Amino acid sequence: MARKRVVIGMSGGVDSSVSAWLLKEQGYEVIGLFMKNWEDDDDSEYCSTRQDWIDAASVADVVGVDIEAVNFAAEYKDRVFAEFLREYQAGRTPNPDVLCNAEIKFKAFLDHAMKLGADLIATGHYARVRQAANGRFELLKALDATKDQSYFLHRLNQAQLSKTLFPLGEIPKTEVRGIAEKIGLPNAKKKDSTGICFIGERPFREFLNRYLSYKPGPMMTPDGAVVGEHVGLSFYTLGQRKGIGLGGIKSYQNAEGSSDAWYVAKKDVANNVLYVVQGHDHPWLLSAALESAQASWIAGEPPGIEQIAAKTRYRQTDVPCSIAVTDAERFSLRFESAQWAVTPGQSAVLYDGEVCLGGGIINSAIT
Predict the structure, then answer these.
(1) How many angstroms separate the CA atoms of 188 and 271, rounded?
(2) Cβ proximity of 60 and 20 under 8 Å
(3) First vs last Cα of the chain: how many Å apart?
(4) Of 62, 100, 134, 206, which has the most beta carbons under 10 Å away?
């Protein structure tokens, strides 16, 4: 019987490298695919594509698999980066990794892999796929809760999941590093990437400066006192504490003067005003509910339950909430306890236990 062919995305990082080795050990015919998705400043100190390709090719040699490089820079710019900039220009804070997975890693990459005769694709994400009794495919959290990446994968659909393997879904990260060292991978000690998907780690404000038009404006407290000037609404996110430039300014709201830290609380895009508050638990930073758009359901339809759990940011613990589905594109969530710094543009991702149900882009937070 012919072995199943798996095309795996190899980034040069340790996770995808160990994934390739595991698949080969499991008897698959494995082909590596290195994606080049950014070339605007490929010679800069921040874009590590060249070194990543060298690492991926070196790993392929050790593991014993063929590897090819494919350029998706045009698709990335059209489908991911343009939307990323549109959201920032509108004063929202997008999550490029969510869009990148939906449009590049599980669309452009999947299409290319199928042309190579792949039966399945694989990536080094920490998540799991399971086929339920009804035949539907489910996206599950990784067993290593500290590394689970289902949040970033919530826009995948049935067709994509049916073709996808996540070899690391049941393995703790510490064991992945151990495997890499044991089999002598050249990148066993390479640190994990934390930069924007495919763009690398760089000073973010300086990077956005090159692409966005921006206008300085007043920084105000809820009672209308001007306490400073912002450099452009796109450069701030709700809940931000560092880099606001108000470190030494006392409160305008009480006679004693508070030394509580300042936080970004709201953006008035129409009037170009950035509202800031003092204190982590200021009411303006807490939301009892949210409204979401661009809904995406892994099962192909909204869940038939009202009580679920949600994350409004990646590192957050799941929080209990109730869901009301408005239509195919929109839903609202009401939380059992108020949530901190719910940010328009970010993803609200929904769970029923370990099963990721899907999610949407946060449109507005409701206090």
Answers:
(1) 51
(2) yes
(3) 60
(4) 100
The DSSP element (H or E) to which 129 belongs, if any, is strand 127-131
Amino acid present at 203: P
Burial class (CB in 10 A: 0-12, 13-18, 19+), 318: middle
* Catalytic site includes residue 321: no
Q: Which two tokens stand for residue 303?
A: 């869940």
Residue with tokens 């939380």: 335
**CATH architecture of residue range(s) 5-204:** 3-Layer(aba) Sandwich (3.40)
Residues of the chain with CATH 3.40.50.620: 5-204
Q: How many helices (H) and strands (E) does the chain have?
A: 9, 17
Q: Which class does domain 284-366 fall in?
A: mainly beta
Exposed / middle / buried, residue 213 (Cβ in 10 Å: 0-12, 13-18, 19+): exposed
297's tokens: 């359901």
Residue 196 pLDDT class (50, 70, 90 cuts) = low
pTM over 0.70: yes
- Strand-pairing partners, residue 286, are 340
Q: Give the pLDDT of residue 256.
A: 40
Query: Which CATH number is 214-280 given?
Result: 2.30.30.280
**Residue type at position 136:** R
